[in-house]
Amino acid sequence: MSLQQLGKNRFMSAELLGSKLDLSSEMDELGDLRGVALIKSITGGDMLTAEKKGKDPFHFYPKTKLVAAGNHMPLPEGSDGTDAFVDRLLFLIFEHSVPEHLRDKELISKLLREKDFIATWAIEGLRSLMRTKLVFTESDAGIAFRKGYKSEKNSVAAFIEDCCDVDFGVEDYREHRRNLVDAYKRYCQTNCIKIINSTDFFNQLTNAGFKTHKFRMHGSSPLRGFLGIRLIPEVQEIHKKSLHEPIWNDDD
Question: Ranges for the SF3 helicase domain (predicted)?
Fold first, then answer.
């Protein structure tokens, strides 16, 4: 069953009784990933209460390992404890796509002929894992993906941390709205993070405590902006060089 099914259908958790492995061949690209609390319980080995349709509820400790594949990782529904949930995930990134004309149609048969060697190799891998007390080795690509995945859940917070200086008590810490949103969009594009619309971006800045005001910067006419925040010098330079490629207008 897919992780989405597990989160949407209250009867699906009963199917995990006696299961060692749940494989989801394709992640759903639509909507958020539901049932985060249930997935955390499964990965944490907590007791589950499950039921089959028309039957009495029962309790069991899940032994199932969850494996899902796909071209897109849906965001977890809600925000509470998101980082704790993501930290339980191990990402295996397949960076190379094999063109159709280069795919080996006999690959399954070839692998089956080498099944004894593959089984020996897998056992050696298990022994290595046991030596590390069941802690998997993560690739640099997987670690980078996790960071980006966390950032996608709160792209504005990640942008502020990586691209801005913040000080509510310094008068020079101010930035026009259009400068901030242009830099935010370029940051998201560079890091392959989903971009939220301008209205939501400004609302999140307001909710973070930044006050809005009209002011001049570098001889400009008075424009709306935020106080207590400014782009770091490196980002300011990138913004200046990209002014001939506007990606937002102040009427949004």
Answer: 1-107
